[in-house]
């Protein structure tokens, strides 16, 4: 329904934010991490502009907007809530306990013990999350054949990254909703400065660039 809402931040606490845009106040369900990233609420002397990427949750008896500071957090939330046993509350808790890149890295490493640190997530559910999410994040079918030439060119340039590492990170970024035009520049920049052929490090550094703003 909405991709994002941008406007004046008029209210926030640890689980709710209200952004006013063109005289309409949009109320979002958020978590404490998102609240901390939003900045200060507008006052008479200062106007605080904010943007939240949103997802509409529509259930039989209720309808509400969830809000995320970064696009990849919303994508991770979508993937998380596709796992049986994970609803909005648990998805929000996980993205409060971990940043998007931290959660992705824990999934890729199969570190279910770390994930079970989140409130309400036991070891069995954490194991299920690592197994199901890893398959969805690293599904190589989402990498188009038309990317082959560019990947080969990048991996043969002055970088220590292998073609497989670059492809894995591309696949994850595409599953998080980023387009080729959005992520290739960030990958190219990071490929020139990363010292080890490590997909987790490349993903972490690339997300830092993509998450700015």
Brief synopsis:
With 213 residues, the chain is of the alpha+beta class.
Folded structure, characterized:
This protein has a 5-stranded mixed beta barrel. It is built from 10 helices and 5 strands. It is 47% helix and 17% strand. The chain folds into 3 domains: 4-68, Nucleic acid-binding proteins (OB fold (Dihydrolipoamide Acetyltransferase, E2P), Beta Barrel), CATH 2.40.50; 72-137, 5' to 3' exonuclease, C-terminal subdomain (DNA polymerase, domain 1); 140-210. The chain is globular and about 50 Å long. It has helices at residues 32-38, 71-80, 88-97, 100-109, 112-115, 123-137, 148-155, 163-175, 180-191, 199-210, and strands spanning 4-12, 16-21, 24-29, 49-58, 63-68. Mean pLDDT is 83; it is low at 140-150. Strand 2 and strand 3 form a beta hairpin. Helix 8 packs antiparallel against helix 9 (180-191), helix 8 packs across helix 10 and helix 9 packs across helix 10 (199-210). It is of the alpha+beta class.
Topology (elements, then pairings):
Blueprint: E1 4-12, E2 16-21, E3 24-29, H1 32-38, E4 49-58, E5 63-68, H2 71-80, H3 88-97, H4 100-109, H5 112-115, H6 123-137, H7 148-155, H8 163-175, H9 180-191, H10 199-210
Parallel strand pairs: 3-5
Antiparallel strand pairs: 1-2, 1-4, 2-3, 4-5
- Placed side by side, the strands forming the largest sheet appear as 1-2-3-5-4
Largest sheet: 5 strands, mixed, barrel
Low-pLDDT parts are 140-150
For this entry, what is the oligomeric state of its chains? Answer: single chain
Query: What does the overall shape look like?
Result: globular
């Amino acid at each position: 329904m909405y991709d994002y809402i941008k406007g004046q931040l008029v209210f926030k606490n640890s689980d709710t934010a209200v952004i006013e845009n063109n005289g309409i106040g949009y109320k979002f369900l958020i978590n404490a991490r998102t609240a901390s990233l939003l900045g200060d609420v507008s006052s008479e002397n200062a106007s605080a502009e904010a943007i939240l990427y949103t997802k509409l949750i529509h259930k039989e008896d209720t309808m509400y907007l969830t809000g995320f500071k970064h696009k990849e957090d919303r994508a991770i939330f979508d993937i998380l809530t596709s796992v049986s046993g994970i609803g909005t509350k648990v998805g929000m808790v996980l993205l409060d306990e971990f940043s998007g890149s931290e959660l992705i890295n824990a999934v890729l490493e199969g570190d279910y013990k770390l994930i079970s640190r989140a409130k309400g997530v036991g070891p069995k559910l954490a194991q299920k999350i690592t197994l199901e999410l890893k398959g969805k994040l690293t599904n190589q079918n989402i990498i188009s054949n038309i990317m082959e030439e560019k990947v080969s060119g990048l991996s043969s340039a002055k970088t220590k990254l292998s073609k497989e590492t670059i492809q894995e990170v591309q696949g994850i970024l595409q599953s998080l909703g980023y387009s080729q035009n959005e992520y290739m520049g960030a990958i190219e920049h990071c490929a020139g400065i990363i010292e080890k052929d490590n997909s987790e490090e490349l993903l972490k550094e690339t997300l830092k660039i993509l998450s700015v703003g």
